[in-house]
C-alpha cells in the first residue's frame, strides 16, 4: 500500500480517537468497557443475547455502567436498587424515550411509545383517560375479555385435538380485544384482513429482535442506505398503518360527536376541538401511529407471553395439573372464569406471574433517556443520554427468586401457599413509562389461560422433557420458539 495512504489512514484514526476522547460528556458518565472508535463496544457484545452481555459487564463495572452502541453512550441500570432509584425515585428525570433509530424512521417521534416531552404527556394523558372511559379496569372490559375467551375456546375446539401451532389463534384473541376498544369491531378468526394484520405483527416482532436490527440501531446509516430486513419491517408497518388510516377515514364519515363509539372516534373529536391550534398534537398522522402503538402493545406482547406460557405448561405437566385442580375447586367446569376468582386461586396467580418473570419478554424494556442533566450516584448524566434498565437483572435476581433460571411458581408463594407479591416483579417495566396496558394484559393472561385449562388438557407429540423453552433471540424482545401443541377437550 502507498506509504502516503497509510499515513493518511493513521492520522485519520488518531484524529477520530482524539475527538472521541474530547467528548465532554464521556468523563462524567459511569465507567464501562473501553469503546473502540466508531464501533464502540459492539464487538464485546453478543447481539443475540444482550442480557447475558450486560450481566457480564455488571460483574466488572457494578450496577451502573456505560456502554457505547456505535458512538452513542448508553447508561445501563443493573439490579433492583439501581432500576428503582432511577425509574421510580427519579421518575420524571428518567422518563424520556431513548434513541431507537429504527423507530425514528417509522414513528417520527409520534404516538405513545417513542414520543417525548409535552407530546408524550398529552397523548399519554388522553389515551389513559379514553381507555378508562371505555372500560379499562372495569367490569365492562372484563366482559369483552370473557367473550373473547369463549371465542378462543371454540376456535381451539376446531383443531379437533390435532397438533397445531398456536401462534395465530392466540394472537387473534388478544388482537380482537384491542380491536373492540379501538375499532368497536370483532373479527372472525379466518378474516383475511385480520390474518394479514396478525402475520405482519408476528413478523415484525421477530425482526425487531434480530441481530441485524441491533446493528441498524447502532449504525443508523444502514437503515437509509443499505438493503436488509429492516426494509421489510418498514413495509409491514406501512401496510398496518394504511389499514388504520382507512378505518379512521371511515370513522370520520360516520362520526357522531355526541356518541363516540371507540378510541378513534374520541381522537377525531379531540382533533376537531383543536383544529385551530397549529401546535396541536392531535393530528391524523399522530392518530394512526398512536393506534398502531396500541395494536402492537395490545396484541403481540400478551399473545407471545401466553404462547410462551403454554409451552412452559407443556414442559411442566405437574404445574398444569395443579392449576387445573385449582380451577376445578374454585370455578368448576360450567362457569366461565372471572377476575374475582383470582384472589381465590393463589397457585394459578403465581403461575401467571412466574411465566412473565421467567420468560423476561423485554430484557431491557424500551430504551429510556434522561430529560435533563442529572447527578446520579456521583455521576453526571447529560440530558438526552440513553438509559437501559436491565429488567432481566430484576426479574432474575437470585436473592429474591432462588434459582431464577428455573421455572418455579413457588417464587410467588409463601410457606402457607398464599400468593406472595414482589416489588421485583417488573415484567411491565416501572416508573413513568410503565406499560399503559398492564391492567388489560394481566386480565387477558389470567382469563385466557384459565379458560383454556378449564376446557382442555395440553399434550405434546414429543417428550415434555425434550421441549426447548429457550428464546429464539433475546435482543429487544425475547421471541418464544415455535412449537406444536394438542388441545384435548376435557
From TrEMBL:
Cell compartment(s), UniProt: Endoplasmic reticulum membrane; Microsome membrane
Gene3D superfamilies, alphabetized: Cytochrome P450
Annotated signal peptide: 1-27
Gene Ontology biological process: organic acid metabolic process; terpenoid metabolic process; xenobiotic metabolic process
Co-factor requirement: heme
InterPro entries to which the protein is assigned, alphabetical: Cyt_P450, Cyt_P450_CS, Cyt_P450_E_grp-I, Cyt_P450_sf, Cytochrome_P450_fam2
GO molecular function (one): iron ion binding
GO cellular component: endoplasmic reticulum membrane
UniProt record similarity statement: Belongs to the cytochrome P450 family.
Designated name of the protein: Uncharacterized protein
Primary gene name: LOC105872479
